Amino acid sequence: PRPAPQTCPLLLRVFTTNNGRHHRMDEFSRGNVPSSELQIYTWMDATLKELTSLVKEVYPEARKKGTHFNFAIVFTDLKRPGYRVKEIGSTMSGRKGTDDSMTLQSQKFQIGDYLDIAITPPNRAPPPSSRMRPY
Q1: Which of 127, 125, 118, 130 is nearest to 55 (CA)?
Q2: Whole-angstrom Cα distance, residue 102 to residue 120?
Q3: Per-residue pLDDT, 130
Q4: Is 25 helix (H, G, I), strand (E, B) or coil?
Q5: Do 93 and 56 contact (CB within 8 A), yes or no?
Q6: Sign (positive/negative) of CA torsion 55, 83, 23, 31?
Q7: What is the pLDDT of residue 58?
Q8: CATH of the domain at 21
Q9: Out of 10, 20, 98, 131, which residue is the most buried by the measure of CB atoms under 10 Å away?
Q10: Cα(59)–Cα(93) distance, rounded to whole angstroms?
Q11: pLDDT under 70 in the chain at which residues?
């Protein structure tokens, strides 16, 4: 038999916002999740840069240079009911950054946790006409 690969893929449940703020934790309560869910098959050693490019495949608006992605892990709090959020790093479209090569594993991501990505358009406050459509 062949030796098993070191890492096996996991289903990553990603939630995105396009207002630059993370979801409120009460949006994850009692089995509910925000409606903006992306499901990505990936690995524990996936980098934030790789995850950014997967999100950009789904949301073409996020490909604009200067779009900012702020990553957070949403996890169950073992000490009290509900979820906690831990910001782990950020990336930017079209620009190299220090967090690009950060992996989920290095941030203590555990299978079953969610990833919440707050996406900020390049010019921060778009004029009303060019608003991204809400998902």
Answers
A1: 118
A2: 20
A3: 41
A4: helix
A5: yes
A6: positive
A7: 92
A8: 3.10.20.550
A9: 10
A10: 12
A11: 1-7, 124-135
CA distance from start to end of the chain: 46
Q: How far apart are CA 16 and CA 71, in angstroms?
A: 9
The range of the structural domain enclosing residue 67 comes to 8-118
Handedness of CA 81, 33, 128, 54 (dihedral sign): positive
Q: Is residue 127 part of a domain?
A: no
| pLDDT tens figures, 53-92 | 999 999 999 999 999 999 999 999 888 888 999 999 999 9
**Structure tokens that stand for 120 in this block:** 């900020």
Question: What pLDDT shows up at residue 5?
Answer: 55
Q: Per the domain annotation, does 23 fall within a domain?
A: yes
Total domains, the chain: 1
- Residue 107 within any structural domain of the chain: yes
**pLDDT attached to residue 29:** 83
Q: Of how many residues is the chain composed?
A: 135
Which of 100, 114, 119 is CA-nearest to residue 51?
100
